[in-house]
Design goal:
The structure holds two protein chains of two kinds. Chain A is mostly beta strands. Chain A has no helices and eleven strands. Chain B is mainly β. The chains are: A mainly beta, B mainly beta.
């Protein structure tokens, strides 16, 4: 069984640019979660999608957005990038109220 | 929201030693998971343990839900056990997994 896959693995962007990160869940999983892990700040919850709908959102500005597609894959979009957006972005998938399984992450560097 | 506290924040062991990592949480939980984050950033599922005791090789975990804590035991530690260990809990209200700050484990040869 394939795990959660994320792309790209690494990304370098300039302040003010926009970025799209992608996540494919484990087959059969309907929930997708996004987390940000900035240096020294731990894992911060960003977004949760289930069955195509946004179910919950963390304490992040509106320039962080995303969506979930009918095949349950998901995108995370970040507009107007700032230096402090540099982080490891982790995607996880699960069935509702079941263990979360994480992908390997996308490491974003903003210069 | 729920608070998750892990202790100790840092741990240094000699290879072969045993250790206990603790996770306290402030409210009832539906789900508790332990993860190991390796130096490359990969988060590896160790245990899904909202209550009771589980064992997997040299690792075992116990959650006492009524007293709001969980323990992760590592026996005969190896250098490959190094990394950060996270406890994460999920409450019923909004199905958001809340992470503790992690325990950084260094196992020296």
């Amino acid at each position: 069984e394939a795990g959660v896959t994320q792309s790209p693995t690494h990304l370098i962007k300039t302040r003010g640019q926009q970025v799209t990160l992608r996540c494919s869940p484990i087959s059969g999983h309907t929930s997708v979660y996004w987390y940000q892990q900035a240096l020294g700040l731990g894992l911060q919850f960003l977004l949760w999608y289930d069955e195509g709908e946004e179910r919950n959102r963390g304490n992040f500005p509106p320039r962080f957005s995303g969506r979930q597609f009918p095949n349950y894959s998901s995108e995370l979009n970040v507009n107007a990038l700032e230096l402090e957006d540099s982080a490891l972005y982790l995607c996880a998938s699960s069935l509702l109220n079941s263990p979360l399984h994480f992908g390997n992450g996308t490491r974003l560097t903003v210069t | 929201g729920i608070q998750v506290e892990q202790s100790p924040p840092d741990l240094i062991l000699q290879e072969g030693a045993n250790s206990t990592l603790r996770c306290n949480f402030s409210d009832s939980v539906n789900n508790l998971q332990w993860f190991h984050q390796n130096p490359w950033g990969q988060l590896i599922n160790l245990f899904y343990i909202p209550s009771g005791t589980k064992q997997n090789g040299r690792l075992s975990a116990t959650t006492v839900a009524t007293e709001r804590y969980s323990l992760l035991y590592i026996s005969s530690s190896q250098t490959t056990d190094s990394g950060v260990y996270f406890c994460a809990v999920l409450t019923g209200a909004n199905s958001k997994l809340t992470f503790g700050k992690g325990i950084t484990l260094s196992v020296r040869p």
